[in-house]
Design a protein that fits this description.
Blueprint (H helix, E strand, L loop, with lengths): L1 E4 L4 E4 L17 H5 L3 H30 L27 E5 L2 E5 L10 E5 L6 E2 L2 E3 L9 E6 L3 E6 L8 E5 L3 H10 L3 E9 L6 E4 L6 H11 L4 E3 L2 E3 L13 E3 L2 H9 L3 E7 L2 E6 H9 L3 E5 L2 H8 L6 E6 L3 H11 L4 H20 L5 E4 L3 H11 L25 E4 L2 E5 L5 E6 L4 E2 L5 E10 L4
Parallel strand pairs: 7-11, 11-25, 12-18, 12-19, 13-18, 14-15, 19-20
Antiparallel strand pairs: 1-2, 3-4, 4-5, 5-6, 8-9, 9-10, 10-11, 14-17, 16-17, 21-22, 22-23, 23-25, 24-25
The chain binds adenosine-5'-triphosphate and the ligand Nc1nc2c(ncn2[C@@H]2O[C@H](COP(=O)(O)O)[C@@H](O)[C@H]2O)c(=O)[nH]1.
């Protein structure tokens, strides 16, 4: 007996022997029928009986393919490994296969440094395998995992035998970000995004003309709330200033290296600012999220525009000087730029002030006249005026996930076996934020008794 599975129906072929039908037995068929049958006709009838389901299957699949523009997915006795176009997909140890439309995403092999952790097979292509551009940081080695397709655009991956705070990953296969990148690269694209458990405040983008006091305000915030905020360390091709440290104030790099990295999709945003390249790497934002901190980006208006178009879902704050003269005074007093650079920065400041205050790009506009007053306003925007507000949130409970996982979904909750009787691990996705490029934030994970799900 064989079971044929296509995407929307099942046919079971039962050979006559399975039903103990014997065509040579004259009692099986009515005498009137048999009377006109010769031995040769009986053979043809037997053949027809056997062929009929196969012909039916072919007919159904052709109709289905015409209707859905796709061929049946798999043959069940070799599930997920043999495509209808003849391609044979061999799953390696610890690999899983998740079908999304015509494509099958094989996840695993993460322990191998070279591998991207993803293989894609497209049943509508002749060769089957498609080599994708893989963006984002892939998970570190894992043995077992379980996957579930969410919203047809991302695959949820839960690592088995892991701690809950590092167990959740997403492979985005058809999100808006991935769609944009597909157009940009002209290839198939997938993007990794780690799931961050716990409260996730929105990142903060701070923009404003050079010398307005962005860095000064950010330093005050980081000094007062060191465990709450983390600075996104940008890349730049400009030369370091006297007291600037590589990896702390910026990642200082050169233009050709940075251009290559931009091409490889390493940056969340980048822009040419005052004659140099500046950019926020995806990793810079991920490092802050992984530390459980709220990310602050000090970037120019062009960069803010790019971030606004991304999935980062930040708060956008523009800092203005009280006057153009005061801006010039501050820039000169800082003493870090040559006269030529000061002139360039002041010229650019005019356009930035125009765009920053009139484009609607920014959620808040602050005038940095009196530094302390401006700082208090900034804290108010960030909900940090009372001392209670500034208290870091309680750490989320961390627990172990079992090796073998089974996932099911109820509304926005993923239920995972906990390894204990009558208890489940719940992954609540109802407050999900962000996603590639960067981390997927706002996830909640807890254990619950079966009666309280
Ligand atoms: N409210 C203020 N009143 C007077 N001086 C200020 C005020 N805010 C900042 N400054 C001073 O202005 C100078 C420029 O400030 P800062 O370096 O923070 O600017 P910035 O916006 O980060 O510039 P850039 O974009 O070039 O990095 C510094 O010397 C700082 O001490
Ligand atoms: N678009 C981006 N702009 C950035 C980034 N990092 C800094 N900047 C902006 O550049 C100017 C000049 O900075 P400076 O350190 O040379 O004075 C300033 O307006 C910054 O906000 C970035 O990653 N992307």
């Amino acid at each position: 007996m064989a079971v044929y599975v296509s995407s929307s129906f099942i046919i079971i072929i039962i050979p006559p022997s399975f039903l103990h039908l014997d065509f040579s037995n004259p009692n099986l068929l009515p005498p009137s029928f048999l009377k006109n049958f010769h031995k040769r006709d009986l053979k043809i009838f037997k053949l027809w009986w056997l062929l009929q389901p196969i012909l039916l299957l072919l007919l159904y699949t052709t109709i289905l393919a015409l209707y859905q523009g796709e061929a049946p997915a798999f043959v069940a006795d070799d599930m997920q490994t043999r495509f209808s176009n003849g391609f044979h997909l061999q799953l390696k140890d610890f690999e899983s296969a998740t079908a999304v439309g015509n494509k099958t995403y094989v996840i695993g092999g993460i322990d191998d440094q070279e591998s991207s952790g993803v293989r894609i097979f497209d049943k509508s292509t002749v060769n089957g395998e498609v080599i994708p551009t893989v963006l984002g940081t892939k998970p570190t080695a894992f043995e077992s995992h379980s996957t579930m397709l969410l919203n047809k655009d991302r695959i949820l991956i839960i690592k088995g035998n892991s701690k809950s705070n590092v167990s959740v990953w997403f492979l985005e296969v058809d999100t808006r970000f991935v769609g944009d990148q597909k157009k940009k690269f002209g290839t198939e694209v997938v993007a990794w995004s780690k799931g961050v458990i716990g409260d996730a405040e929105r990142p903060i983008v701070i923009s404003g003309p050079s010398g307005v006091g962005k860095g000064t305000l950010i330093n005050m915030l980081m000094k007062e709330f060191p465990s709450m905020f983390g600075f996104s360390v940008s890349h730049t091709t400009r030369a370091p200033r006297e007291k600037e440290e590589n990896g702390v104030h910026y990642h200082f790099t050169n233009r050709s290296v940075m251009e290559e990295e931009i091409k490889a999709g390493k940056f969340l945003e980048f822009a040419a600012v005052h004659g140099n390249l500046y950019g926020t790497s995806i990793e810079a934002v991920e490092i802050v999220a992984d530390a459980g901190k709220r990310c602050i980006l000090d970037i120019d208006v062009q960069g803010a525009r790019s971030v606004r178009a991304s999935s980062l879902e930040a708060i956008f704050i523009f800092i203005c000087p009280p006057s153009f003269e005061e801006l010039e005074k501050r820039l000169r007093a800082r003493g870090t730029e040559t006269e030529e650079q000061i002139q360039k920065r002041l010229k650019n400041a005019k356009a930035e002030l125009e765009e920053g205050t009139s484009s609607g790009l920014f959620d808040h506009i602050l005038v940095n006249n009196d530094l302390e007053a401006c700082y208090q306003q900034l804290k108010k925007i960030l909900g940090l005026n009372g001392s209670m507000d500034a208290t870091p949130k309680a750490a989320t409970e961390v627990f172990d996930l079992p090796m073998d996982l089974s996932l099911s979904k109820i509304d926005e909750k993923i239920l995972i076996n906990s390894g204990k009787a009558n208890q489940k691990i719940v992954l609540d996705l109802s407050s999900i934020k962000g996603g590639a490029p960067g981390r997927t934030r706002g996830l909640y994970m807890y254990t619950a008794d079966d009666g309280n799900l």
